[in-house]
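INFO batch 0412 | record 1 of 1 | parsing
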Amino acid sequence: MTADEALLERVRAADVVHGPSITDAATTSHEDLPWYRRFRLLEVLLRLPHKPIVIRYADDGQEIVLLGSSYAIYGVNAREGLRLGAEHVSRYLRFFFANSEMARTQIVESPDEPMWLRHASEEPEMAQLKQVAQSLIRPMQVVPAGEGGYRVIVTAIQDRRLLNMVLDVRADGRVSELSRSVLLENIPVPYLGI
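INFO prediction complete | emitting tokens
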């Protein structure tokens, strides 16, 4: 058995929902997550008949954890004994949003980051909305808060709304939304799928 076959066998055993769909034709990739000592992000690409999908897991070489919820991420954080440093907060939040219930919300930090609709610069009304939205996008602000945690202000997109969100990020990786405000409605971006 090759290393790839062994990895896919471990994934099938760990994921009772998707496991039966994971064939040897699936492709995998790993990405280091610098706030973890052992776990890495594992992406499995399944080429299903109707459309390809990517399933994400945390993998430490022994244990595989299906991501997709904050509870799964918090479980990995607990196994790691996570103590999140300020240098990793921005990337951790992007990971958290992409791999939890927040997957339909995209953090954006620069005007070029959103996937603008192709015709957003051509139609006057959309071009104006795009220009206003771009002017409101700000880099993430991370400020130390009590007990080794952080207060974080992010600009994000959810369902074609540009948001300003204030988050509490604890050193153990727990994320709480403290407030959100809508900066602009109906911005010219596609709806995010999961």
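INFO post-check: The radius of gyration is 19 Å.
INFO record closed
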